[in-house]
Amino acid sequence: MGDTRDVFFEPQERAVIRTADVYQTQIEVGTTGYSDTLLNIVATFKNSGRPEGFNAQSMVGKSKRGEVALRLFARINPETEVIEQAGFKSRGCLAMTACASVICDLIEGKTLPEALTVTTEDVLEAVDGVPWDKSYTPDFAVEAVRALYGDWLYRNGATLAQLNEQLPCDENSLSCLKCEHCSLRDTRTDLLVDEMVKGREGAAAGAGAGIAVIAEEHVSSDGGVGEGAAVETEEALEPEGSDELDAADRELVEHNAIADLCEAVRAASADSRLSSPAEWDELGLVPAHLSAEDFEMLAYEYLEENTDLHAVAAPVAKGEAAPANPHVKSRFRTATKAVGVPPFAAKSKAEPVEEREANDPSQEPQEQDSRASAVNAASQRPAATNPGGTIDPATGLRIPAGYRLEEIEGELVLVQTDEETAPVEKAIDCEHIRALVGAHSYYLYDNTLMTDAFARWAFLAAEGNPMVTLAECAREECRTYPRPLAAASLANDPFHLDADAVAAAFAAMAGNADFADIAQVQDSKGDLYFYSTDLMSADLAESLAEWYGVERARNV
């Protein structure tokens, strides 16, 4: 369990699994209600992750990346359709992880049609039952196998009719209703849309069933088709603002969207913020042909495969010794770059404005001022706003494709051109992107622009658990400096917890064994401080609180 990650603090006596492949979100009840067989499966599974050379995959769950989700991967022999190796990724409870591991074992060595014969009863028997409130987990495992088969058929050119024939679905069945998300359902939708597009383009034979349904609703009483039928059919087939994209175009659009996302993450990190999926649609990062959820998963999977996404230093567990303090190696530090110069301007190869004025005395003062303003404005702009394009030789500004610089009323502005430029593949710079995964979302940052420590503080603030925030910050202060945590410091960015919120969090800790070590002390002015009794004595906490709150100001 060397790669286990504790994103929140968890008691040492409670087993929590958080790796790149298995993320346990439900920890409140520990192992209560689980059979010894199930717990043994969870403790010893070896089939997580993507098998080498996998050529089929599926996903089912309550959401694409929510409380409970299961992904299956398989390497299938193309000649025999035998599942040679299966692997999984899971998110949720221990029962989900156990059922995911078991279903991989049950389908390996079987042909795809044979794998469909595995039932929920088979899964339940293999794990020796699941708690009553986890009864959906065997269904997810079995439905994931159906979706895996559907993905295999789709990859091998199956039509919607063939898919319906070999894998008929009853969307009103209990299993389907339990699965809020199912990749097989998504595949059917994609095939239906493809057939509808073909029908619109004039493929009379084999037109999609969706067209017939739409048109039939507009048949007039005399048997003719109403005038509005063609109009509504066209609108239904081509949503506003959508463009037809072939596979290569979609791949390029998605690639560039991830490149833009990485730039947006860096811009957020430079602004001391984490970037989360909740803001990506509003920022215009989500491609038109994808839903926000689809892009969220696409980005996560790409970053997971191409970066050390989870290489974040975990917080020191309760009671453990503090690491070496990185803040006290020297009282002094040497600047490595010009202080106050934005990164954009520091890295720009543009000739300084003063040098341009000296080299070109004929330049009009108004033009000099406007160009200087443009350079200064651009230096304050996140790099993500200037993807691609060309460099203007006069200003050194990067001009996005499809735009030109034009001087209007003494100011340089970007004006859109009428030229249609072919999309250019952007470079994806994701080497330093890191993720923190919470109970319901994940958050990205660039660790060259934001420290892991600050990212974790921002993460705690975003997750909205004041008790965990107060406890972790108090322990960290005691370990690192050492000193008690001033309650007033939690009012600062990124926490923004006022005195009432801090007091309420401390009161809620009472009687909770997870926070039994957190205590409070006051200085002579009445200001509150918090400390960990595992890391600091009450006398030391009191004396340090008095020093930092009262005496230090008198000695500076």
Write up what this structure looks like.
This protein is an alpha+beta fold. 41% of the residues lie in helices and 12% in strands. The protein is built from 19 helices and 14 strands. The protein has helices at 36-44, 94-107, 112-115, 120-127, 136-155, 160-166, 174-178, 183-200, 209-216, 227-237, 247-270, 292-306, 343-347, 353-359, 365-379, 452-463, 466-480, 499-509, 538-555; strands spanning 22-24, 56-61, 69-76, 83-92, 181-182, 390-391, 398-399, 403-408, 411-416, 433-437, 442-446, 485-486, 518-522, 528-532. The strands form five sheets. The protein has a five-stranded mixed beta sheet with strand order 1-4-3-2-5. The longest helix has 24 residues, at 247-270. Mean pLDDT is 75; it is low at 1-13, 203-243 and 322-387.
Strand content: 5-15%
Structural shape:
flat
Helical stretch tally: 19
Number of strands: 14
Largest sheet: 5 strands, mixed
Overall pLDDT, averaged?
75
Lateral arrangement of strands in the main beta sheet: 1-4-3-2-5
Low-confidence stretches: 1-13, 203-243, 322-387
Distance separating the two termini? 48 Å
Radius of gyration: 29 Å
From the helix content, strand content and strand pairing, which structural class follows?
alpha+beta
Oligomer: single chain
Could you estimate the helical fraction of the residues in percent?
A: 40-55%
